[in-house]
Each structure stands twice: as C-alpha cells, then as structure tokens.
Amino acid sequence: MKAIGIVLAGGKNEKLGELTKNRALAAMPVGGCYRCLDFALSSLSSSGVGKIAVMTQYNSRSLHDHLSSSKWWDLGRKHGGLFIFSPYQTDSDSYWFRGTADSIYQNISFLKRSNEQYVVISSGDIVYKLDFNTILERHEKSGADITIVYKEDNGLDTSNYGVLTLDENENVVDFEEKPLEPQTNLISTGIYVIQRTLLIKLLEIIIPEGRYDIVKDIFIRYRKRLKITGFKFEGYWRAINTIDAYFSANMDFLKKEVRDLFTKRFPYIETKPKDEPPAKYNSGAVALDCLVGSGSIINSYILHSILFRKIYTGENSKIINSIIMERSLIGNNCYVENAIIDKEVVLSDGKEIIGAPGAPVIISKGSVI
Amino acid sequence: MGKKEMIAMLLAGGQGSRLGVLTLLKAKPAVAFGGKYRIIDFPMSNCINSGVDTVGVLTQYQPLLLNRHIGIGIPWDLDRRSGGVTILAPHVKRTQGEWYSGTANAIFQNMEYIENYNPNYVLILSGDHIYKMDYSKMLRFHKRHECDATIAVLEVPIEEASRFGIMNVKENDFIYEFEEKPPNPKSDLASMGIYIFTWEKLKKTLIKENALHEDSDFGKHIIPSMLSEGMSLAAYRFKDYWKDVGTIESYWEANMELTRTLPDFNLYEDFWKIYTDDDHQPPLYTGQNSQIKTSIVSEGGEIYGTVINSVLGPEAFVEEGAVIKDSIIMSNCRIGANTVIERCIVDENSVIGSDVFIGQGENAPNVNEPKIYDCGISVIGESTIVPDDVTIGKNCVVFGKTTREHYTDNRLESGGAIIVENEAII
To answer: Are A290 and B286 in contact (CB under 8 A)?
Structure first.
C-alpha cells in the first residue's frame, strides 16, 4: 500500500450535549452495533491501509476500550498495525493537542518512520464507506499536492461544514470553514490525501508559528500556494455533528439500501465483537421497522426504532421512533417516543419519556428513572 | 515449551449419523445450535472460561467446516503464543497412515502433542453436548480426592439408565464398576463423556490398551483396565443442564427449549459466555409487517414475515407473508414469500422458494431411514434449493439443488426423500 492512515478522533462537540459528556464523538454508538470510528477504520483497513494512527484526546477512555484489540480490523500486525496516540508529557513540553495539525505534529515520528508515499487523513466522526484506492489513483493522476474529498449536498445545513469552491478542473479555489453564507453546496467530508513528506514539511513550518489546525492553517492558508484538488464522493456520507444529524444517521440504518451498503456488501464494517446470544422475542413482542441488537430480550411493542445490544424491554411498553443504547432496561408499561436513551439506563415501570419529532429527548448514560 | 497443569483434548471426529442429512457434509460438532452457535462452541467456551488455554481438537469426519470455524481460535481467545487451539487430524506416520479407530486410539495417536506440554492432567471432552461446566472445579475435585481418573456423571431417571454408560459407585462416589448400557442398571449415574486423567496413569493405560485393541475406546477399554489395575476412579456429580443432541428429535427439542420465556439453559449470562465465530453481523431488522413471537433470532437477518416458536440463525431472510412455526432455520437461509414451514429443520445456506408448504399431511415414517426421521420433523439439508409452489409432508428429507422435476405433481408426500447429490462434493 502506498499510504498510511490517520484517523482524527480527538474532537469534542458541544452540540451533542449529554451524549458526549463521557465519550468522544468518534465513540458514539451508530447503527445498532457500531461505534462511529469503525467506519473510518474499516474503510482504511479494507482499502489495504495497514498502518493507521488514531489521534485521541477528549474522553479517550471510551476509545481505548473499543480499540483494546486491533485484530477486528485486521490491524494486529507485526508490520504497521494500529497506533493510538494520546497527549503525553515530555521533558520539554506537556501540551494537550492544540488542534488537529498539532496532534499529528506531536507524533511526527509516526510520519517520519514510515516510507509510504501518502497519508490518508479521515475524521473519526463520520459514517461512510470508501475505497481509498480510487482516491489515491486520482490524486496521483491529478498531480495535486492535496486532495480533499467532498460531497455535493443540498439537504444539509452547510453552515456546519467546510465549504469548497472549485474551478472547472475540480481545483479548490476557495475553502470556507462553517460559513454563514456559503457560496456553494460542496462540503468537505473530512477525508484528505496528502504526500507524507509534504505534510511533514508543512507541519514543521506552521506549528512553530502557533498554527495548529489542518483546515484553517493548511488548507485555507495555503489554498493559493498548493495545488489542492477536490474528489467528489457519491456514496453515503453523514457527519454526526448535531443531535439531529446523529439521530437521522442512525435511523438511516432502517433503510434497506443503507443496511445493504454497510452490512451486506463486501467489504463490511467491522467492530469489536461482544459475543451476545441471539435476540429473544417473547410472546408480547411486536417489532415493526426496527433494528434489534443481539442479546436483547423483547416483550414490548416497538416501532421505527434502533435497539443496540443487550436491551431488555418489559411487557405492555411501547417504544416509538427512538434510539436505545446498549444494556438499557425498559420496564413494564413504559412509553418512549422520540427519545435517545443512552447506555445502561434503567426505566422503571410505568414511566413516560416523550420528545418532540425532530427534537428527541436525551436520557443520559446510567440514569435510573 | 512451557508446562501446562491441564490441557484439553476435544474429540470432534464423530459423524453423528443419527442426525441424518444434517451431518452429511459436516461433523456433528459443527452442526449449528441455538441460532448462531455450533455444538463445539460449548465445550470450547467452557475450556477458556475454566482457564484451560490449551485445547487439541481431534477431527476426522468432514473436518473442513470445523477447521474454518475454529481457525486459530480467535473467538475463544485461544490464539495463544503458548498453547491455544490446535487441530489434530489423523496423519501419516513413519511407516503408514492410520485413521482414528476409537476414542482412546485417537488420543494415543496424539501422545506426542500432549507430551509437548508436559501436563499433570488431561481433560477429555467430546464435541457432542450442550452444557456449561467449570472444569476447574472438576479438577479441584480430582486433586482433592487424589484420583487417577475423574468421570463426570449425571443422575438420570433409573428407568432410562439402561441407555447410558453407567458408573457403579461406593458410598464415597469412588467407582468400582463401569457398565455400558446395562439391562438391569445398579446405579443412576450416567457418564457424560467428560474425563480428567492424571496424565502419567492415562499414558500407561493408553499404551497398554492400544497394544491389545486396535480400536481402543475410553468406555470399553481404558476405564475397565484402570479399574482392574486397582487405580482410583471417582464420579463427579454434575447437577446442571446437560443435553445430548444426538437425534433429530432431541436436537429439535433442545433448540425449541431456548425459545421459552425462562429456558432451563441460560445463554444470557454475562460471566459464562458462549463464544462463536461471530463474523461481522449487524443487528436484526424486522419489517413493517413482520411478526416474531417466542423465538430467538440471530443477527444479520431481515424478517418481513412471521416467525413463531422458532430458532433462526444469522442472516436469515424471511420474505413477506412467509410463516415459520416450530422450526429451526440455520444461518444464511432465504425463505420465499407466502411459504409456510412447520416443524422443520432447514440447514445452512438453503433457499426455500415462494408458496412452498413444508410439514403438511399425515405422519408417515421416512421411507429410507425410518429410525432417523420418525417424529414428524422434516429436514432440509445444507445448501439445498426447494423450488416455488411445492408441498412437502412430514418426516421428509430434501437435500441438494432440487427442481420441479424431482417432485411428483409438485408434492413430496410424508416420509418421502429427495437427495440430489453433487458428485463433486460427495
């Protein structure tokens, strides 16, 4: 393989509120059994990228647990494999990662001790599946210094994303970060390809200048000096940067084409196995248009919802249009609608949790109600 | 190589011929159970949960699927630098090759493997039973009583005792006699086929018995020989769930039992998990018009029809209008629209067409194998295709890629059999 991979999983996002109080954005549970990071890791690994660094910082424990073994992504290797970088203290300095570029700079030996020609950088907060070989091929053919994978999308609120302006040859002429008045509907996906030696050179220039961000301090600042090209991605892609986006990215897994893309068509998205037994449906179970994870025991009426693993739902309860994460327990005679119930929540008998459509109620991890 | 206190030898070479077509292409330990598992997962998981990290798996009959399933042992955490899981197949030795001719003979032929680990004790298991057991407790018992051999036993109803190998014991549970299927049993302690031997003693007996019998067997030769030598053998009473799933009916019943609200066998415990080769299975999807009741359904499936009192394996695809009742559907099967399946076992990777009826009609025993298929359950074999619009009775067997031409007037009456053999495979 011509490339090494870097997954940026250090980010914090206030917009997800309670859900990311104790976990990194990249550790957000998605689609009934995955964590968001699995999509980047699986895409890289199945494209043949065999040496991958995951940059963690904010609530990194939630990721360390998930990545405690790298064999599920075929990254338990003598050569290359998975590297997990968190901030650490040294003799001379002890900084937290001051930005995405800084997180790579502080671990620049990872780049220097590789001999692959390119670096693929992916956000860990996005849900997608991508064959990086196609991008590398285009990157080489175009002669670009940097390739930014973008998506043309009319449905999204572009003010939450990086927005590109391209010329007729797909070269980037402008890049705005979260603009109030976006000039185009071409949004950056958070996936980039750059030559490894060029990345080292740029980092060694910008960090001493006190610039720490890849997008702001490399892409935007150098957009006229470097040849930056866009690569249009046509497949499924969602960033989970707001509660609404998170909720709808999960609900997308109720659509057959989304499930088929990620789970039925090779290469699959891999995750850490949990070895739960098959889901059990007792005599009161009704589960319509639902995903139910393994190890769950269902006694309720469930409509248009996603239940992660090891959920128990009691008798005469109703769960509608909701997400329920691992190991939560819903008692008897409960009513749950438009809710996101985080892990290990206990809902005692007869409780009602009702949110508004488009504005789900969030019950935080471990709550007992 | 490092020394191990106890290693396990798992006998997984048997065909299990009473399971009929289910074991045509795979050994009995590889047969699916409880949706996502295979029978061998139970002893394998018991090993790692009991702290036994070195397991030799002896294969012989149709080993391909077993080999692929076990791999290097990752699902059971048995991928180890020292020990771990090793597949032990019959092999050619200096002068000639030899099949495993008996249970003890199979161990005899792999003495070199055991000696590598220089163990004090050897645990002998079979890959035929469904149970959870802490072998470390049994080892503690073995050491405390300073036995040469400890045999796990189950108390069975005395009227059924003549179907088992029976241990006759003195009041302190030391064994004085072993009887295989005695007509007039003197005790109700049935051997479970689980033994712990002090390796030095077993080794001596294996060598001696192998010289006398070319098909040396634990029940027939090793245990009687140890008793006649005056060695101390104790019975270890096991009180928990243990099921032999050796016949179509017992296999079906043990699966059905798991669908009850509170089954005797609990798969949902956190601290004695059963591990299996999980693959990348996403959650189960149930459609807008689906109905699932008193059933267990594994991951990766898409259910648009109705499933009642059934056990479904991974990646089941049940189309709209299909009804599955009192049945076992193993992994990666597709059930066509408006098909009705009752009291049926469908083996892996099979495709049942649309508007098919299975399990209809009177209860006639099977024409070819009346002893195997006699309980009203029809069996559809592995990688089988059943065409649209056919009706299949009870006690039927269908195997292979069948087409309309194989059926008379689109029917297979109760007790009928269609076996389409692919010569490249069999």
So the answer is: yes
Answer whether CATH 2.170.130.30 is correct for domain A3-263: no
pLDDT by residue for chain A (369 residues), tens only, comes to: 799 999 999 877 777 888 888 888 899 999 999 999 999 999 999 999 999 999 988 878 888 888 888 888 888 887 889 998 888 777 776 778 888 888 898 889 999 999 999 999 999 999 999 999 999 999 999 999 999 999 997 677 777 888 998 898 899 888 888 888 888 889 999 999 999 999 999 999 998 898 888 888 988 888 889 999 999 999 999 999 889 899 999 999 999 999 999 988 889 999 988 889 999 999 999 999 999 999 999 999 999 999 999 999 999 999 999 999 999 999 999 999 999 999 999 999 999 999 998 889 999 898 898
Residue B237 near chain A (CB below 8 Å): no
What dihedral do alpha carbons B54, B47, B269, A34 form, nearest 10°? 30
Indicate yes or no: CB of A281 within 8 angstroms of CB of B278: no
Chain B interface includes A331 (CB < 8 A) = no
Q: What is the DSSP letter of A261?
A: I
- Closest CA in chain B for residue A287: B286
What confidence tens digit (pLDDT) does each residue in B110-119 have?
999 999 999 9
Instruction: Read off φ and ψ for residue A186, nearest 5 degrees.
Output: -100, 110
What is the second-level CATH architecture of the domain A280-363?
Answer: 3 Solenoid (2.160)
HEC string for A203-228: HHHHHHHCCCCHHHHHHHCCCCCCCE
Q: For chain A, first and last CA: distance in Å?
A: 51
In whole angstroms, how far apart are CA A305 and each of A128, A148, A246, A359, B262? 21, 35, 14, 15, 26
Where do the CATH 2.160.10.10 domains begin and end in chain A? 280-363
**Which of B280, B283, B311 is closest, CB to CB, to A268?**
B280
Residue A304 in 3-state DSSP? coil
- E strand residue ranges, A233-355: 237-239, 279-281, 286-288, 290-292, 297-298, 301-303, 306-307, 312-313, 318-320, 323-324, 329-330, 335-337, 339-341, 346-347, 352-354
Sign of the dihedral defined by the CA atoms of residues B362, B363, B369, B373, in that order:
positive
Nearest residue of chain A to residue B289 (CA atoms): A288
Dist CA B387 CA A47 (whole Å)? 39
- B310 at interface of A, judged by CB pairs closer than 8 A: no
Closest chain B C-alpha to A297 CA, distance in angstroms: 9
- Could you please report the per-residue DSSP string of A28-45? -EETTTEETHHHHHHHHH
